[in-house]
Specification:
145 residues, single chain, globular
């Protein structure tokens, strides 16, 4: 971790109804961030229908004035009508559970971006569990008709 404030985070919201609003953990309301010190940044994205999603990004700043952003895992759209996208989850194990804990879908050693077709599943709440080499993420998703 260097002392240079040259980290960047570039996000793109999709799957909801634009326009989107952004609220970062340090009260900034812009979509993208530049000139960041090394650290962890979280953002809550809200679409015009009131649907909310969030993500966390870690920005590493090197001593040679180069910045690298670790991609955050994205799960969208939520709620979804059928197709669920999970991005930036390479080599992860992804499992989708129903409210009773029954596995309804899953994949091991995923590609960078994975798509699940939930069109034949009943409407309701489900949980997505993503296990990577360094973290476990569990998110609730809503399947609508």
């Amino acid at each position: 971790w260097g002392g240079n404030d040259n980290g960047t985070i570039n996000i793109t919201a999709s799957g909801g109804t634009s326009p989107y609003t952004y609220l970062w953990n340090d009260s900034i309301t812009t979509e993208d961030r530049i000139g960041l010190a090394a650290g962890t940044y979280s953002v809550v994205v809200t679409d015009s229908s009131g649907c909310i999603d969030s993500l966390t990004a870690i920005t590493l700043t090197t001593n040679i004035n180069e910045a690298t952003t670790i991609k955050s895992i994205a799960i969208y759209p939520n709620p979804t009508k059928a197709i669920l996208h999970i991005d930036n989850a390479a080599n992860a194990t992804i499992t989708i559970y129903d409210m009773l804990g029954k596995t309804i879908a899953g994949v091991k050693k995923t590609n960078e971006n994975t798509i699940f077709d939930l069109s034949k599943k009943p409407e309701g709440a489900y949980f997505v569990k993503i296990v990577t080499s360094d973290k476990i993420i569990t998110r609730k998703i809503i399947l609508t008709q």
